[in-house]
Amino acid sequence: MPRPISRSLFTLLSLLVSLSAFALDEQEELVFFDKLMGDGLNELASAEMESFLQRNPQHPERSELLWKLEHCYLTLGRPISAIERARAFRAAAPDDPRACEALYLAAHAGAQAGLLDDASSLLEILLSEHAACVHHGDAVLLSARIARAKEDRAAAHQLLGWLIDHSSDREILGRALYERAELRAEEDAESARPDYLALKSNMSDHPLAGFASLSLARLEQQNGHPDRALAELEWLLARFDQRDLVGPALGPKEDWLESIGRPLHAAEALNDLRSQIPQRAGAVELMP
User: What is the spatial distance between Cα 97 and Cα 22, in angstroms, rounded to a whole number?
Assistant: First the structure.
């Protein structure tokens, strides 16, 4: 995100920009706004565009300016303003193919900022009015996450289940399987097994397949099956090498080998852990 300019500098630049824009006709102003955005001066650009819309509320380029304003506010990290402009853009140009993207981007920013009700309302509009939108699956997944954050577990289950039954996007489908498994595990660890297995078995190349395997390993260990747990870890370590999986896998592997009387193998696992992550304390901190 671009570094925000100081208030004093903003005031000075605003004055200079306003003086520059004073001599421009409307079309030249529109080009000037693009120039400001292109130079990364989104705060100035947004202020000038807001002023232009106040002076020209029915201008033919109103929807275009609202689109640009939303993106300025997203870049500036101002989700409330982005949400307001996304709503205004959708109202001004409901048939514009970008309305779906405007709603999704604002909803995503709102959810990240904890504006869950605002994000939910935007997603409801998106899902009801833009069934063919490229962001449709992402919107359902985000809706499920918001429902879970609001402790509406039934809605989260329903949304994730819909994705699992209907999505043809492997990336989204894998995430839906993993997140439903995690949701189920909060109530009953064993009930999460089918989704973890489906993700691991049917989408072994998915970024979350390793995490599904790690969860299955822990489940097998909890159920008193250390050999099965170790087999899961071996499967994981043979396919994934990212730090956030290797540490959580190698740490338990050493402990589980030692617990079943295989100290030499445990020592090998510890050496592997030290070679992958120099200090074991650092690896343990990575465990979820």
Answer: 33
For residues 43-62, give the mean pLDDT.
93
pLDDT mean over 223-250: 83
pLDDT category, 15, cuts 50, 70, 90? very low
How many CB atoms lie under 10 A from the CB of residue 114? Answer: 10
Of all residues in the chain, the percent with pLDDT exceeding 90 is: 63
Collect all residues with Cβ–Cβ distance below 8 Å to 207 and sequence separation of at least 6: 174
* Start-to-end Cα distance in the chain: 29
pLDDT attached to residue 251:
62
Q: State how far the Cα of 46 lies from the Cα of 33, in Å rounded to an integer.
A: 8
Q: Give the global pTM.
A: 0.79
Asked if 245 and 286 count as a contact pair (C-beta separation under 8 A), the reply is no
Distance CA 131, CA 115 (A): 24
* 31: exposed, middle or buried (Cβ count in 10 Å: 0-12, 13-18, 19+): exposed
Residue 59 CB burial class (10 angstroms; 0-12, 13-18, ≥19): middle
